[in-house]
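Ligand: 2-acetamido-2-deoxy-beta-D-glucopyranose. Inputs:
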Amino acid sequence: MIALFSLALFFFASSLHVEAQDERIKVYANRGDNITLPCRLEGLTNLFGNRIKWTKLEDDSTETDVLMSMGFHKKKYGNFEGRVYLLGADDNDATLVITNLDLKDYGTYRCEIINGLNDKTVEVDLELQGVVFPYSPRLGRYNFNFQNAEAACLEQDAVVASFEQLYEEWRSGLDWCNAGWLSDGTVQYPITKPREPCGGARTSAGLRNYGRRDKSNSRYDVFCFTASLKGRFYYLIQPKKLDYEEAVNACEKDGAEIAKVGHMYAAWKLLGYDRCDAGWLADGSVRYPISRPRKNCSPTEAAVRYVGFPDKKQKLYGVYCYKPQP
Ligand SMILES: *[C@@H]1O[C@H](CO)[C@@H](O)[C@H](O)[C@H]1NC(C)=O
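Predicted complex:
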């Protein structure tokens, strides 16, 4: 009897159609964090319970399912399996918990609560604290199609940056005159000091946009994004200069691995790491991070300095290591 009555009430309420409530929220986090994405319904609880659906809105306008809940029935999807759950503070709570936050978790999430009385949609922007850096391989500039670009960032402990992430980095001063892929499939580059070879001296500062490019056949550099480190990045003090192979072995002997480009950028930008010694990195490049500009060490600006991809046999450099957290 009660069930029948509430069923009637349910249809009555649906046919009246109560307005949907909409909200937008921003959440800031670090890699490895456990975070909550808030979403809750104010007002009447439907006796049948709420249907809850969490999706992630990707850069290329597709949606990825994250979690679905209907009564006791819950389903989690893809790389979120085992890492997400509903907080479930009460019957109207649809807050999502994501554990061990990953670089790829960055982005916009949508929560939909459907109960027929007062549906609700909440969009949550999840922002990771991190750094964007341009990347090109030993072969030189403009050698990556989109797939190569994704692989290259991954190899540097990073992901392909989004437009928003590059924009943020531009606002904090990134100026780079080579075009690179972004995660939405566009190719752009950030200019803070307009000049002739970089889109014109009389243009305004900003992101120069080549638009969407053919992901298989167009070749550019890439902008990678990485976030705070869970392990320790350091310069390994050695009695003499090393070639590449000796550098790899020296880190191993120290219980670590040779550091990746992403590790150096994260340590430099987020921890203020500063060292005026050129050192090998895993990709075979040689760089050094300067956060306090001074004579002979990047005198005009704080930057990760790029020496190049030298011959791996040259015994001319030190080495930077990375020790992952156990
Ligand atoms: C995050 O949650 C997981 C699983 O609930 C737990 O094992 C881990 O210790 C938590 N991590 C942090 C940083 O709180």
